[in-house]
Amino acid sequence: MLDMPLVTQSDPGSENYGIANAHTTLRHWHDPQLKGTLQHRWMRQKKNVMPEIAWSQLRRRFTPGYEDTLQQGVDQGWYNPDDPLESLVFRWVFVPWLQRELDAYRERINHTAKRADRNKVLPHGVPEHIYESPETYGALDFKVKITDPASLQYVRQLYAPTDHPVFELVPTSFNGLAEGFYTTMGCPIVTRHNVWTVYIQLLQHFLRYEQLLAYQEQWEQAWALSNEDPSKHNGIIDPLPGQQGLHNGEDVLRDDGSYYMGGVNNGAGIDEVHEVHLRAMLDRDEPIVSEGQREFRLPELVVEMSDDEEELANDHMYW
């Protein structure tokens, strides 16, 4: 069974209306009492902290080596991004490879414990373990179960239809030929060491293809269309009408100057039931959490940890 968060958050901007609308629609589907409320937080400049940190870490840990690899093909004259055929071959080879590398990076981050930092109070441990068993780490579980698969299909068709041009990596006819040529090449596993070799060999197969001219105009049109603003294909998504914002937020400060940006109780925060649950956990023996060969006892259910970029000082670049 899949889960979803109570709320999503993003920087303000029309490019994020689709995310806000889709999530709100899903939440309303599974909890009709939420209808009329936007289940999304708009974060002002420099307030969307966690996603910005994750993006910054990706840029520092993951990106540099891959940028160098991509630039190599341009510098060597192997790839001209303004050439439709070369661009389509590039997409067919590089995009799936980069997606696999990003997936591996995500798995590494989600299965690696972050180092402690006394300035942050969050559950300490491997993120994936905390997500799957939050109570083991002294945290309440606010994941929302998606109990009706039809809701996903409905929202996907409404806001991200699979036949939208933005989801077509290459034209269907191009993909069929590329798969055939790739099979002829022996289906080499693409790595950073051979990715340009695979690209060049596949491009040569296309250039030697006798019926290339018959497809050229069709592929050039598809390539030109894919380079346009996606909103031109399906219009600009408007925000859902008549939706009230969640309670609290940046404009509702507590006595200590803090504010609540979560989605518990429609933005009101935890209630007495949650507090009773937390007290019950406090009354139990604190769990001993094991990370690798090291075991430690959580003194107050949560320990200090950080998402700051300082942790990168002792980290190895994923390359």
Task: Quickly describe the structure.
Helices cover 45% and strands 9% of the residues.
Could you explain how this protein is built, in words?
Helices cover 45% and strands 9% of the residues. With 319 residues, it is mainly alpha-helical. It has one domain. It has a two-stranded antiparallel sheet. It has a two-stranded parallel ribbon with strand order 2-3. Helix 4 packs across helix 9 (212-226). It is elongated. Residues 295-319 have low confidence and may be disordered.
Give the overall form: elongated
- Binned, the helix content reads 40-55%
Give the overall average pLDDT: 85
Rg value: 24 Å
- Please identify the structural class as seen in this structure: mainly alpha
Distance between the ends: 34 Å
Strand tally is 8
Lateral arrangement of strands in the main beta sheet: 1-5
Order of helices and strands: EEHEHHHEHEHHHHHHEEE
Uncertain ranges: 295-319
Main β sheet profile: 2 strands, antiparallel
**Number of individual domains:** 1
Give the number of helices: 11
Proportion in β-strands: 5-15%
Give the key terms.
elongated; two-stranded parallel sheet; 9% strand; two-stranded antiparallel ribbon
Secondary structure elements and their pairing?
Blueprint: E1 3-4, E2 8-10, H1 17-30, E3 40-42, H2 49-61, H3 63-75, H4 84-110, E4 116-122, H5 127-132, E5 144-145, H6 149-159, H7 172-184, H8 195-208, H9 212-226, H10 231-234, H11 272-283, E6 288-291, E7 294-297, E8 303-305
Parallel strand pairs: 2-3
Antiparallel strand pairs: 1-5, 4-8, 6-7
